[in-house]
Amino acid sequence: CVLCGRTDDYPEKYGEKRTYVEYNLTVHVYCLLMSSGIWQRGEEDEGVDGFLITDIRKEVKRAAKLKCNICKKKGASIGCVAPKCKRSYHFPCGIQRECIFQFMEDFRSYCWEHRPVQEFMDKEPRGASQCTICLDLVEHLPVYTVLKSPCCKNAWFHRECLQYQALSAGIFFFRCTVCNNKEKFQKEMLRMGIHIPERDASWELEENAYQDLLHCYQHCDVKRCLCKKGRDYNEPDSKWEIQRCQYCGSRGTHLACSSLKSWEQNWECMECRSIFAKSGMYNKRKKRALAASENSDGSPCLLEEPPPKSPRQSSGSARSFLLQSPKIMCQNLSPCSHLEQPASNRVTVSPSPVLSNWNWSLRHKYLRQQRKEVCNILKELKVQVQTKPTRLNINTENIWSSALKGFRQRIFSPTNTIEVNFSNCKNRLKTNTSSASKHHFFQVLMLHLQNSSLFEGSFGKNLSLDFQALKENLYFEAGKMIAVSLVHGGPPPGFFSKTLFKCLVYGPENVKPVLEDVADVDVAQTIKTIKYANSLSSLQSTLQDCCEFLTAAGCLRPVTALCDKNMLVNDILIYHVIKRITLPLESFRQGLKTLGVLEKMQTHPGVFSSIFCYKPERLSAETVYNLFTIHSSSDVNKVEGADFWMGYLQDVESGDSVVTLEDILLFVTGSSYVPAIGFDPEPTIKFLHIRYPIGNRLLNCLELPRTKMYQQFKNKMELTIRNTLRVERE
Question: Which keywords label this protein (predicted)?
């Protein structure tokens, strides 16, 4: 190696050893990354991973003048970054002397005296425990060779074991082996010098690693096979097509033998049913949403997510979360036009009009007050956000995948200021300000999450059980995205059921679900039949019919009196709504801890329910008017100007205009909705001697022209706003 002078080929310690014959150059990748006097000035395909050959030769000449403080030989290209420390060393020498090299940000290096250390509490036991990777004993000592998990009190590792684990798992799968935490764990390990490569896991990259899984099981295993041509007969697109178990895939049945109407219905073998029943994760077949009709043709598309009010499909279409049609995401979004009401409301009784209006007025007033408090709390959390920017490059044709990639990239930090750049395969779409792109991105992202396979239900949504999403840690990412959106100026979610919200803030063990939380039509019907049984004989008959389901749910018990049905219904609800989604819920909670959002939710549950469980308030002329402050320095007649402004907003609200209230808000602030955290800075209005109105999105300031006649004022407003937004959309 031209930098360290060693011939060792030890990829786990020194990185890949590369030889470039045409340049007469051999170098260890880690030696190059950690050298203090060189930077990546080229593209990834230039030189050595972006390090230009001329720069490498200059760095070799610079290092040739420096003596290593460890081996006393020249060529020490790495220096300690601690102030006033002048130690230099080779990378292999630094490893031997227990220096720490941080493979992140500026690739800093610390000598043995100034290296970062982990904090150990005085109360922590000083004994020994098993390393959760190699299972050998590791002593609880603050030494270089031992690392402690930042998220688990009793998780200790050998440094060497963690490094091998990181190289094998890669950035997407490297996490705490005890609690599965990823963000906090990776951050601490990077700080302590563990290199986490930006690549997929080694087991995912192995060629033909899953070749055996491509073999399709073709055999009917039910007790009584009805096919005259035998159990191995398979005729696609007919009732004799073999359907495999949706969980293990190693058992099968003819459609006719299990009374399945089509291959789109899911089927589970008896072995899997018993396993999931014991683990509390049994998922009944034919998953559909409650209180919604089937598609007209009876054949839902497997590659798209169901729209917000269409029935949720079976768990067999788990991958549809990633395959959602991007067309839905790229449409012009219009704010929700629903009346503000609890997301979990399913059935309402119609009171008298006067009483109803009075109740709604009180509810609106109460929710506005609650949202003001949420706004102040979120502003406290925003203090963590630094001016350092993190740019997300979002592909308009595949918003979810590009958003997921952006949130998972190593340089992403929720405490950095987020800038969003929309692009497609042909060119980049330019906007006036980064805030407009950011507002639009968070709005699209929240709509996607609401309609994704991670949630189920028609109105107030609960978490669903999606095994593919669980495997890919998408529940954690969804929670993280919602937390980041709230603090960085995104819209309030507004689609959580009250049961889901209570599980998050109070813990699932303290929540009692209701029938409206069940999104599966079949399960809901079963519960209703049990609940409304009017005699012991009819109850026992019902239990006999659904014996298989009750056994899988672990709720089957002897019934000797009609009153036993209440306890049975409660057990089924707890299993189906809470116990079944224990793993997704915990992962989702971990994601919501980002930036301290979950902690604030648990401290102020009442106020946060106003943005999680209720639809955002529909924009009105009064809402928009109160949102803006007329600048005190305006020497125009403020009464006349305010009258023109209020009159125009009322015309827009009544439909007597070519623009909408959302258009006005978008023209001024770059957002068509009011963020949960509010606008920063707060919107203002100035009346000036100008010909046409100007929307200053950097200051959230609307500059309005002085006019003598209202009609003249209105014409100028409509012409400017309509043409400006039309040009932006084009």
Answer: Ligase, Metal-binding, Nucleus, Transferase, Ubl conjugation pathway, Zinc, Zinc-finger
